[in-house]
Design brief:
The complex is a heterodimer of chains A (275) and B (247).
Chain A lengths: L2 H12 L3 H8 L25 E2 L2 E6 L2 E6 L3 E3 L2 E4 L5 E5 L2 E4 L2 E2 H22 L5 H14 L1 H5 L7 E6 L4 E7 L5 E4 L2 E4 L3 H11 L6 H18 L15 E6 L2 E4 L2 H18 L4
Antiparallel strand pairs in A: 1-4, 1-8, 2-3, 2-12, 3-13, 4-5, 6-7, 7-9, 9-10, 10-11, 13-14
Helix pairs in contact in A: 6-7, 7-8
Chain B lengths: L9 H4 L12 H17 L4 E6 L2 E7 L8 E5 L2 E7 L1 H21 L7 H18 L6 E7 L9 E5 L5 E4 L2 E4 L3 H11 L6 H12 L12 E7 L7 E3 L2 H8 L4
Helix pairs in contact in B: 5-6
The chains are: A alpha+beta (275), B alpha+beta (247).
Chain lengths: 275, 247
């Protein structure tokens, strides 16, 4: 067997990446990379496409909390009241999506499959940096669509087993990856959520306090940003909140979120604060 | 290499005529290939699979903790292979690719052991008839039932693409026949994990005069009580507890 042949075998066997595999074997299923996408003469106005609004992540004593409101907004309309924006990427990490909801959810699904595929083929997990990097590459492929108003800008957070701490990453539309130390928010209400976190976030918060800070920030974002949905007491829709710790990816039950939301709203009504 | 008489063209260079290939009847060729494959497989250590109360148990004799014979394919599907490592490893990865692409393009629930077992059967059948050297492997695809009346599925695929669906228990590898005979007498429905594991380990040693400790075993379950991904490896520490051997 000549060199080229066995090297080909090696290359073929060696990929543990699902997106590589998909691009090679089923290109019709692959989210079209920017370079091969035909130029669109009259792009659809971004108002016509649902956009996810506010997601945030913050560090606390046991790891990270990720949270998002439940609303998707298309222009001045509510596109969905119950959309889920925080996705479990694997046992120790999650993605919060903001931006064009369709491509963002597709990207989250591809990312989940990518991580699981790697884990099964290699029998081992990717490092947290490896995962963050992979997500950056996926965002970069979406660049041309991003230029036409279909940007996807997720937050990625996870528990780093090697170091034993929670870590979080933010991205720009070119796939640039920036590690944030304490907290970050993304989406249309992100500035307001960040302002809120800036005042409330403290080092080494316990779970209860971190949960309260998270929901304060989301309520502030919903207060100031028209696109972001607040706790909906009539329909019983509350922000989704997830924790990622050493023991895995966990969901904070709706009942608990509801209780904390009600406490915050009652406190604000009582003191006149937060107006 | 220079004096190798088997090298193509060696005869011609020495002024000999090219020998005509001998005629071999297809029947003989298949028999030879089958014997070759069987011999390779019978040298390998065995694997047993048992349907248990909460799912499906897979037990392999495997002293290596790094090179696996049992692996996860998808949410409810596991894979096990005996024979030549590189060959069943290739099949394993092909299976994961098949399942992940299918689950990505349709939905997670649409990935089934049956489709996967058929794909393996096709692949092994083609290799057996078309390649000079058949794969010296047997593979097993197991899918745990969701509950509510649906049934576990266990498919056993041989080196020539023959496919069988098995009930209650399955065995493959060197001592498969003896193990099957043993399990026929000793298998009971709905065993709890620890008893099933002890039975599985006993069946693996049925032809040997030795005992297997947790270091010689690779064990995994498709655990119906788990969320989404049902596959779970049982590490040696937990194994010795389940086997009831003092550490």
């Amino acid at each position: 067997m000549n060199d080229e042949r066995w090297q080909h075998l090696f290359r073929d066997y060696g990929t543990s990446s699902f997106s590589e595999l998909l691009r090679r074997d089923s290109p019709h299923l692959f989210p079209t990379p920017a370079a091969t996408r035909p130029p669109v003469e009259h792009p659809a106005p971004p108002e016509a496409v649902p956009h996810g609004t506010t997601v945030l992540a913050l560090r606390y004593r046991d790891g990270v909390i990720m949270a998002g409101d439940r609303q998707a907004t298309a222009g001045y309309q509510v596109a969905s009241r119950r959309i889920e924006k925080i996705f479990k990427a694997d046992d120790l990490s999650g993605v919060g999506i903001a931006g064009a909801a369709g491509p963002a959810m597709e990207m989250a699904k591809l990312f989940q499959t990518e991580l699981e595929h790697y884990e099964k083929v290699e029998g081992d997990n990717l490092s947290l940096d490896g995962k963050a990097n992979k997500l950056g590459q996926m965002i970069r492929m979406n660049l041309q669509a991003a230029m036409m108003g279909l940007a996807v800008v997720p937050i990625f957070a996870g528990f780093d087993e090697k170091v034993g701490v929670g870590r979080l990453f933010k991205y720009d539309i070119t796939g640039g990856r920036y590690e944030e130390k304490d907290y970050d928010a993304q989406g249309s209400g992100s500035k307001d959520a960040r302002d809120s976190l800036k005042k409330l976030w403290k080092r080494d918060m316990g779970r209860d306090e971190a949960l309260r800070v998270t929901l304060e920030a989301l309520i502030d974002a919903a207060d100031e940003d028209v696109g972001t949905g607040g706790p909906d007491l009539v329909r019983g829709i509350f922000p989704s909140v997830k924790t990622i710790t050493r023991s895995g990816f966990g969901e904070v039950a709706d009942d608990e979120v509801k209780r904390v939301c009600e406490t915050i709203l009652a406190d604000r009504a009582r003191t006149g604060n937060g107006g | 290499m220079r004096d190798d008489p088997g090298r193509p063209g060696a005869h011609r260079e020495r002024g000999l005529s090219v020998p005509l290939p001998y005629y071999v009847s297809p029947e003989q060729m298949m028999k030879d290939k089958a014997e070759y494959a069987r011999k390779g497989i019978s040298r390998g250590r065995s694997i047993v699979t048992l349907e248990i109360r909460d799912g499906i148990l897979l037990v392999a004799e495997n002293p290596s903790t790094l090179l696996h014979k049992i692996s996860e394919i998808y949410d409810r599907i596991a894979f096990a292979g005996v024979g030549k490592y590189n060959e069943f490893e290739n099949l394993r990865i092909a299976g994961i690719r098949h399942a992940d692409i299918k689950g990505y393009s349709y939905s997670r629930g649409d990935v089934t052991a049956k489709a996967l077992a058929n794909a393996y059967s096709q692949a092994l059948g083609n290799i057996f008839t078309q390649d000079i050297k058949p794969f010296e492997v047997e593979v097993l695809v197991a899918e745990v039932a969701e509950g509510n009346g649906s049934r576990n599925e266990i498919y056993h695929i041989l080196y020539d693409g023959t496919i069988e669906d098995e009930r209650n228990y399955a065995a493959m590898g060197g001592q498969a026949d003896e193990i099957r005979r043993f399990l026929k007498d000793h298998y009971r429905d709905a065993l709890p994990l620890d008893e099933a594991l002890q039975l599985g380990v006993r069946s693996l040693t049925v032809t040997q005069n030795k005992t297997l400790s947790e270091r010689d075993l690779e064990v995994a379950v498709l655990d119906r009580t788990k969320e989404r991904r049902k596959f779970r490896r049982i590490p040696p520490e937990a194994l010795s507890q389940l086997l009831g051997t003092p550490r």
